[in-house]
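Appendix B. Raw example, untouched.
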Amino acid sequence: MNLSRQEFRQQIRQLRRQLSPQFQYQSGLELVEQFATLPELTNAHHIALYLSADGEVDTQPLIEWLWQQGKQVYLPVIHPFSKGHLLFLHYQADTEMVLNQYRILEPKLKQPLIQPLTKLDLICTPLVAFDSTGHRLGMGGGYYDRTLEAWFKHGQGAKPIGLAHDCQHVSRLPIESWDVPLPKIVTPSRVWHWESHL
């Protein structure tokens, strides 16, 4: 069955939304166990994450675990002037939050909290679906494609790591010429990695 990118998005998002809150929370705990095995974590001190929405795997346990490990956590904020781009702001338990245009919570934009992309070690990216070659299907806004452009083109900057439920894996996604696979994707049951892209 040859589904379009949009059909994949609709199908997987629908699947995600049917997962119970208990399943989501348990998946979040299992995600931490897998994430903790990443060798990249040893020297990573500044890690960008995101708050789960729309049935995404629960990232709250991972955020809290990273805090416990003494890691600095950052969340994406939609850039107010540069359309389609993200800023990353330092996030703590008492950070002031606001709803963005997609009705997703993000830190209130404050200049001192902004962390330049060049100072991040890892960027955990959300995704709607991924396939066996490491290609990710995002929401279609291209925010993370732009954010990770330097890494995809030159291997510079923060390393991207996708996070997903196991049910978001499909054997093959329809890809475009500009699509670049992720080096690693972490799910509650395993770490997928594509050594040729490291």
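End of appendix B.
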